[in-house]
Amino acid sequence: MNQWNERFGMNEYIYGEEPNAFIVEQADRFKGKRIVAFAEGEGRNAVHLARQGYQVTAWDYAENGLKKTEQLAERFHVKVETELKDLLHDAVPSEAYDGAFMIFGHFPKAEQKNVFDKLLAVVKPGGVIVMEVYSEDQLRYQTGGPRTADMLYHPADVLAWTSGCEVLHFFYGEQKREEGRLHTGVGHVIQTVLIKNPR
User: Against a cut of 0.90, is the pTM above it?
Assistant: First the structure.
């Protein structure tokens, strides 16, 4: 049973239709045109970047999320390519995109580095990666995100994964997020913006 497919099956956009505030702030960091969104859910961030003129591909393993991404893109008269992809098990193309991002992609601890490595792998040397995820401290806030530490992130892990990249931005702390009914209020996040260094 795919709980995300079920969750995204309702008409309501459960995380809202407005883009994540961090993506809005960082959108002009992307160089080049082709951007891929990891675990993009209902498409609010992909559609925002498409409206900025980027060629965006959205990956998610919930078919209902991808359908809603297409509907939202149509409403805003932009195109977002969608592809059903299980980021834990499916291969990703090597160095195919100018940039990649993941906003609140929830994965078990044992798989988090695997997914992060795929974020790096899909981007060309010199490309930009943007990520915002909930930290383990989010459990104290109860304003959204998983309710188990195994699905949340530790800042030391994320910093370790960035080895070999140029870190443009790293933040660990509180941010206010009003994103639909499931992200409401102050939460505790980890943010990073990286450049994948040329070989």
Answer: yes
Task: Find out whether 102 and 87 touch, Cβ atoms under 8 Å.
Answer: no
CB 9 within 8 A of CB 2: no
Show the DSSP H helices in the chain as ranges.
Answer: 3-7, 21-26, 44-51, 63-75, 109-121, 155-161
pLDDT per residue rounded down to tens, the chain (199 residues): 568 788 888 788 889 899 999 999 999 999 899 999 999 999 999 999 999 999 999 999 999 999 999 999 999 999 999 999 999 999 999 999 999 999 999 999 999 999 999 999 999 999 999 999 999 999 999 899 999 999 999 999 999 999 999 999 999 999 999 998 878 899 999 999 999 987 6
Token output for 57: 């591909």
Q: Which domains does the chain have, with CATH numbers?
A: 3-196 (3.40.50.150)
CB atoms within 10 A of CB 72: 20
How far is 196 from 124, CA to CA, in rounded Å? 7
With b meaning 16 or more CB within 10 Å and e meaning fewer, what string describes 26-42? bbebbeeebbbbbbbbb
